[in-house]
Amino acid sequence: MKKRSNVRWGVFTLVFLATAINYLDRSNMSVAGPTMMGDLHLSKVEFGVLSSAFFWSYTLMQMPVGALVDKLGARLTYTVAVIWWSLAQMGISVTRSFGALIGMRVLMGIGEAPAFPTNARIIADWLPSKERGLANGLSSMGMAVGAGLMTPVVAWIVETFGWEVSFIVTGVLGLLWTIAWLVIFKNKPEESNASKEEIEYIKSEQLQEEVQLKSDVRWYQFLKKRNVWVLLYGLFAQDYLLFLILTWLPTYLVVAKHMTLIKAGFNSILPWVVAAIGAIVGGKLSDYLIKRGWSSINARRFVLTVGTLLCAVIIPAAFTESIPLALTLISIAMGGMMLANSNVWAVLADIAPRDSIGTLSGLQNFVGNISGWIAPIITGYLADRLHNFILALVIAGIIAIVGAIGYAFFLKNDDENKNDTLITDRFAK
User: Domain Major facilitator superfamily (MFS) profile: where (predicted)?
Assistant: First the structure.
């Protein structure tokens, strides 16, 4: 028998790298924050607004780009997106006024908007259902690698060469990735050099999806489904913690714990290492449960509930004076967040028609990233007024608890709730 190729995992390696670069570019502002605040005379509130500005455009663009990737395909969408956000990232290096910095962050948000809807499209097209949990876990791990593991490197660049150079270096990485993407990636497995056996393997678990190719679901039709509302709030809850840590952790360690920037950079690694582990464990756990006979929705629900509930560990972290204990608790919360996040995208392929996954992922990412408008600004405002980060962290924990309750009691599969059938059944033609 001819050996099956593994082109799909080469494709997914590009997705992983794109996600890592995406979050490296986002987190650069947090690492450079203390230096930028000093050089440009920015207050905590102003820095919070600057961190939030990225999400203004990023969030608003989720709906149109979700539908766009379904129409244009992943190859063209990702090419334009990565070039756009990389140039905007580099543009920050030559910007000095507060207003111009906001403008660059807004432009960067537009460029990064298609990333996760495109990832969802690629995973749906290139992987069978039983491999999507692992793939989404690896994709989430890319977030941790970019935002956390590279933090000491970015901190060293800022300390050695200045904050401006850090934005140039991280922007160039995106442009280099684009070259590899154009050389390697094709929109469909059958357009690539994947073997016939691999293509058949990929298609083997997509039979139910294939009959739904003409579903033509509009985004507002998804809002009729309770499952969708649970997913929308659940991602909002996870993202609130994610974006609080992403935009404030190194600055928090410098300002509240009085670390040097380099030391803060190294101490910022631990939460992201645990987050990366959580992402892989979450993806593999749900895939394992499915193989053991659990329905896909039940498997995802279990992991989503446990992971989101662990985010609430951020609450005791707010009250401890011990730096090691605070970092440990923050790390557990981040690990839980990624445990859940590895499944929040995989479940879309289980409840949406195949040709509308980009649309639903755009809607989900839109709601999730509203937290990016709120978390950085609220955190900066509370830290400035209260001279500590306690209430800001507690708020993130409470939001997560509500999300866990939603997953546990309101995310249902078809057998559990006959009156709330899957979207794929209701809208397929």
Answer: 11-415
**Residue 134's pLDDT band (boundaries 50, 70, 90)?**
confident
* Percent above pLDDT 70 for the chain: 90
Domain ranges of the chain: 7-190+217-427
Name the amino acid, one letter, at 322: S
Tokens of 278: 């959580």
Predicted pLDDT at 364: 87
**∠ CA 358-363-366 to the nearest 5 degrees?**
120
Q: In the structure encoding, which two tokens stand for residue 85, read together?
A: 């956000």
Third-level CATH fold of 7-190+217-427: Growth Hormone; Chain: A; (1.20.1250)
**Whole-number Å distance between alpha carbons of 360 and 366:** 10
The stretch 59-88 carries a mean pLDDT of 88
Residue 52's closest CA among 18, 36, 29? Answer: 29
Would you place residue 104 in the very low, low, confident or very high pLDDT band (cuts 50, 70, 90)? very high
pLDDT at 1: 45
The Cα–Cα gap between 39 and 245 comes to: 23
pLDDT at 223: 81
Structural contact between residues 230 and 407, judged by C-beta atoms closer than 8 angstroms: yes
Q: How many CB atoms lie within 10 A of CB 191?
A: 10
- The DSSP letter of residue 211 is T
Residue from 368, 386, 273 nearest 330 by CA: 273
